[in-house]
């Protein structure tokens, strides 16, 4: 029997559509670009607009609402979701472990509401025999909160290592897993999930990586966005569906921006974080190559949502933000300086004692040429690069797949590749059928299976059927766009096509009922009754 392929899932956190080199970006990503050059890129692949729901969907092949993780990892019952993976879903790690695979998660989990006591939503209870990473959603890169090995908190490991940097630690664990299993169980196939937190805020990077990008962003977001758009045009990645990359109308022109040196430093730090992740990916690929496993490893690289426009502190003052985050209150930066939180021009990010984000204007650059950001279901929130690499898999190397797909399609692809069936039951519980289809026919140059795509997150909603996309920003009316000519979503055709809008809206309603979408108003009512705000509900 032919050796079953290894599987490697690589997920970036809060990275925009056009940040990496092979998708038009100026950030140097030679290792990711190498995967693209000898693999296949997708031009219309979609995540679910937010980190936890995307991870739930990626790992289970279901829509996040079916898994209990509809928003983030807060337990919002009885008016919302449980915030943890439930027993009515099975992860790809569980399926592959039962099929004889060695399984490892190195990096971010963010699928359990309780991150202090081991429970059934922890990775070690959902198919990963080896786990090193963080259970929470965001943290310092130098002293990550909820750092866990197996089911043991190891936050102290970071503070005891003067050169600790979380992106590197994820890489080191992933490489160790490949090396150690090759040495002891060379015939056993591997499933490795490398879930980086880069480039999610806070903006913190290694000094040498920061130095590499010094001055790269002094020209500002307008010139750089046009350059990205030109590279996208030249590559043909978007076809004729976009011809311009307009600046977010709520953001100033670079010429009118204040504090340019500070602004440039923000994007320099972000780029340094992406670059360090790419270097880590190169190390993982080298480990697989050294083990003689790379050719028969099915590799996926993608981002969990579009670029993030969040401003720190998220709500209120820096003091209030720290008070709500015990991990920040405990931080003792090793440079001896006090922790400084916020997007203020006197806080130059990058070092361990800063906690900042890069802002809406740079996120607009990251999402070139799309509208909106993380949390929205317009293209800027859900469009992601997807690169698939498998030299032994008969892929159409160098191809660009232009059909639309989403995260629910990854698990069926893996199961077809490893020749394992999706289970009807797991641990005595009936499972809903997987909603996705395999990508393998498209990856091999064949015909794609047409299927409608659906999204909902905090009331923002969308569906995609063929060329048409119906999308809504809560609480505004539905919009309609022709994705063959208008991926940038500039020309709303809803008033011209009322019958089509109604037809698609009814299909979305039927889907929402089937997968258990909790109406956003119901979630909000629960928070209002508790005296809390909409931003509390959204997380």
End-to-end separation? 49 Å
Q: What fraction strand?
A: 15-25%
Fraction of residues in helices?
Answer: 25-40%
The total beta strand count reads: 19
Biggest sheet details: 11 strands, mixed
Task: Give the CATH architecture of the largest domain.
Answer: 3-Layer(aba) Sandwich
Enter the CATH topology name of the largest domain. Answer: Alkaline Phosphatase, subunit A
Mean pLDDT: 96
Radius of gyration: 22 Å
Low-confidence stretches: none
> What is the total number of structural domains?
2
Question: Can you tell me the CATH class of the largest domain?
Answer: Alpha Beta
Would you kindly provide a written description of the structure presented here, covering whatever features stand out?
The chain is α/β, with parallel strands linked by helices. It has 2 domains: 6-310 and 357-538, Alkaline Phosphatase, subunit A; 320-356, no CATH class. It contains 18 helices and 19 strands. Strands 1, 2, 3, 4, 5, 6, 7, 8, 11, 12 and 13 form an 11-stranded mixed beta sheet that branches. The model has no long low-confidence stretch (mean pLDDT 96).
Short summary:
With 539 residues, the chain is α/β, with parallel strands linked by helices.
List keywords for this structure.
single chain, 539 residues, alpha/beta, Alkaline Phosphatase, subunit A, 2 domains, eleven-stranded mixed β-sheet, four-stranded antiparallel β-sheet, 18 helices, 15% strand, globular
